[in-house]
# Entry
Amino acid sequence: MTPILIIPGHFPSGEGHWQNLWEEALPEGRRVFMPNRQRPVLADWIWTLEDAIADCEAPPILVAHSLGCIAVAHWAVDHAKPVRGALLVAPLDVEQPESLAAVRPFSPIPRFTLPFPTIVAASSNDPYMALDRARELATDWGARFVDLGPRGHMNAASGHGPWIRGEALLAELR
# Structure
């Protein structure tokens, strides 16, 4: 069974968030508890991800949301543990001037081909990442890009509990 590491974003997911539902429903799924999510430190997030991947009995699939997507890209710059693939959902644009000060240290966003199959799924009305920017990141990361349509930030606040299309994207990486 392929391990699935669920990597959250900056703020808590909230009850009913698709990541929480996947963590409960997928026997091979487990959450990566990123330290200090209110004031994230890039190096701490990278090493937490490194440890979580190292603890897997087989190359995992990474399922990241928001700031977690950016952490995955930073991790991939200097780490080579095998990863089966990554589903990066609603990446957070940490390079924009209006970004929260707490996440700006995650910039610049790494721009290189990720060394594992990747799908970037983004919304056309995400307040934290313009669709064209998400498409550019997908291109830079060598990822397949999926336009989810007007779905907000793909979090509980935008009405996302169960996410059937996301389950289909995850199945592609399996």
